Amino acid sequence: MTRFADLGLDPDILEAVHDVGYETPTPIQEEAVPPLLHGHDVIGQAQTGSGKTAAFGLPMLQYVNPAEHEVQGLVLTPTRELCIQVTQALRAYGRRKGVDVVAVFGGAPIRSQQAQLRGGGHVVVGTVGRVKDLISRHALLLHGCRFVVLDEADEMLDLGFLEDVERILALTPSSRQTALFSATMPPEIRRLADQYLYDPVTVKVQAMTLTVETVEQFSLGVRPREKPDRLVAVLAAERPEQAIVFVRTKARCEQLYRTLRDRGMNVKALHGDMTQGARDGVMISFKDGRLPLLVATDVAARGLDISGVSHVINYDIPTSPDVYVHRIGRTARVGRSGRAITFAEPQQLRELRAIENHAGVTLAPWVEDAHVAPTAVKAKPRRHSKPHDRVDGDGRGRKLIASIGRAAGLEPSDIIHAITAATGLDGEAVRNVRVLERFTLLEVPEQDAERVVDRVTGTEVCGQPVKLEPAAT
């Protein structure tokens, strides 16, 4: 069995790995770390949850010199949530070495981020739009940047960031080392790699499971009125290190959070009606391990990659088998074990059978101290949605125009967050976002267009009230 010590990492990095509780490298770490340590460019194809942050982060931090007060590493991410998660991980990995990691992303005061950069910053993790903005203000200088990472490159393509990514890469030294990680490799990402990576080593981790190798899966029959009491009983019996309790709606999320809080539990909610600042605070405290229990909706928890989650509880049965796989993929990260317990009301047995058929498992009845053989969670690979793809199953999308654009500092993720927060619509349903100087074009499912226009118009985005209306066709 390969150990981290076999990969060629320095003692201070190995100590940091031990501090965060990693025992053996995951496949992507085992295959990507050695070529990165030897100075090669790397293309890594792996799903979220495979341990790729450590795969690129450990080699990058090994070559950072804390005595040199300039930006030596840059990680570009498509969303602020991923930016925060990567930053937290890199700070943990670089703590013993004294590496300063700065996060920069839209929706937060740019002046405070400028001040952080002036105060140091060996590694910068940032969303594409904010990095570009800071470069234009001469607050972020990349002439000493030796290591560049493009994380979730296909998501950057989905959000319309690729042109800006290329502009940023053009401002970094030609002698830099570059790593590109992506769940899929559409032609546009392949072209980007061909143009900006030099003789790269390709690492591909087969992920027909969502890297969930050790999940014990249970079901628990409950009546609606019994659910809060049964949940409290399950939590008392299971004593999770960290648990995510999934519910279907924002209202139920807030209601259950208050119920558990009133019973003395250390718990927070995560849903789309919260401000982005509040969501960021909850995610950071959960990531740091200070928060043991999180009640969340599916949309709000999208992209959560927390290695310490020991339990996922489906308080509300998932709306589809795919959602089930996505939910329980939040546990058993980077080779750890996990337990998933799904509450099923009497009229929901058909939905439960559909989940079992899709995931290829039979959920064992949950009783206290029950154990079953861990089961790999089968899942189809995520299909990449190219910018011109239709947005819903019926193939009908409606183009909208927003009265705000690049001049206001808007990033595609800002308008997507505004729509999901106001409507509860899944962020992936917002497609073809194109930010112009004073306007933004986007596409949403036909059946949701009227609701999106009604609920988003008048809300504030980047400090300005926004108006949405159907685009002329």
Count the beta strands. 20
Name the structural class. alpha/beta
Q: Spell out the CATH superfamily of the largest domain.
A: P-loop containing nucleotide triphosphate hydrolases
| Number of separate domains | 3
| Strand order in the largest sheet | 3-4-2-5-6-1-7
- In round numbers, the mean pLDDT is 83
Strand content: 15-25%
The first-level CATH class name of the largest domain? Alpha Beta
Q: How far apart lie the N and C ends?
A: 60 Å
What is the alpha-carbon Rg in Å?
Answer: 22 Å
Taking pLDDT < 50 over at least 5 consecutive residues as the criterion, the unreliable ranges are 207-212, 380-395
- What is the CATH topology of the largest domain? Rossmann fold
- Range of helix content: 25-40%
Per the principal axes of the C-alpha atoms, what is the gross shape? globular
What's the main sheet like?
7 strands, parallel
Number of helices: 16
Structure described in brief:
The protein has 473 residues and is an alpha/beta fold. The chain is built from 16 helices and 20 strands.
